[in-house]
Amino acid sequence: MGNVITGTGRFVPDRRITNEDLSRVMDTNPEWIERRSGVKTRYIAAPGVGPSDLAAAAGAAAVDDAGLTVDDVDVLITATMTPDSFAPGIAPLVQTKMGLGPVAAHDIRQQCSGFLYGLDLADALLSSGKATTALVVGAEVHAGYQPWIESVPFLLGQSDTPPTAEQYERNTQYRAWSVLFGDGAGAAILQRDANPTAGIIASRLFTDGTHFDLIHVPAPGFTRQPYLSLDVIDADLHMPTMKGRELFRQAVTLMPQAVEAVLADAGLAVADLDVVVAHQANARIVDAARKQLGVDAEVVPINIDRYGNTTAGTLPILFDELRRDGKIQPGALVAFTAFGAGAHWGAVLYREPEAR
Fold first, then answer.
1. Catalytic pick among 3, 171, 282, 309
2. Catalytically annotated residue among 3, 106, 112, 142
3. Architecture of the domain made up of 2-193
4. pLDDT tens digits, residue range 28-69?
5. Which of 106, 142, 211, 279 is flagged as catalytic?
6. Known catalytic residue: 195?
7. Which of 317, 299, 300, 321 is nearest to 308 (CA)?
8. What superfamily in CATH does domain 199-351 come from?
9. CA separation for the pair 124, 3 (Å, rounded)
10. How far apart are CA 211 and CA 343, in angstroms?
């Protein structure tokens, strides 16, 4: 028997921010953003909306797509790096908001690779018989990180007050990464299938803590006493830091290597792949990884232009789009791959069932 994806769903907020918008609140221009990242637009959650809200909506769509009810789900796996609150994680909030009942609910923190790790965990739980129907969700609300978030009412025409000179300067200071991210969630239902050749075929997951600081949010954290202070906030230690050049080098090398490893485990080759669902961190990274694999652009689709980097949400959002657009055909061989903060990376090889 195999563990197959029987339903998918996605949800993004309705506040759409374009590159043209961002050029009004920082020293940048739309062409620079698109050329550097591939991003044209992103969606930003409203104040008071957390990843648990987006996850619950995406999860409900996946349950409905699978033709199930919430009573059928017996394990929940949530992945996010932007939880609603410092503790607990979002899993109990998603469980409650969806009305799942007192099922086992896992929170995992592998950032951009979170959904990938979630697929592997769901596969293990289903294969062991500890679950029959797993819901895996990746959800992010990066809005709170954004230095330009206070200018969103101005961008949306809800205020006539542009950013101050100090705000404009600070927005510009963080433009290298702040233009990349968007908010959104994607979800998948996994169930057992009688066909042993369908579903998840193989997975390879890796972690290397020597690259811990490639993408890093230094604070708050419990190496500090107190773990949060005004000094920490004044020093912007709660803002992400990113070593872009080294991140690019690692991602374009390690994602293709992971894909090749799972293919080798299954006795298959790159030429057998129909679709590679790659993490949408940057269009240049995705394209470079594609070239490393030696496949056509159609095999490695990109949607970062419309959503930005939604971290744990990128893989399930893209896969849901591809399924609903008819681009995941029966029998298709699919490789999921991601690289993210930690550093965590890997690949999951998946065979779409011949019939749903």
1. 309
2. 112
3. 3-Layer(aba) Sandwich (3.40)
4. 999 999 999 999 999 999 999 999 999 999 999 999 999 999
5. 279
6. no
7. 317
8. Thiolase/Chalcone synthase (3.40.47.10)
9. 9
10. 5
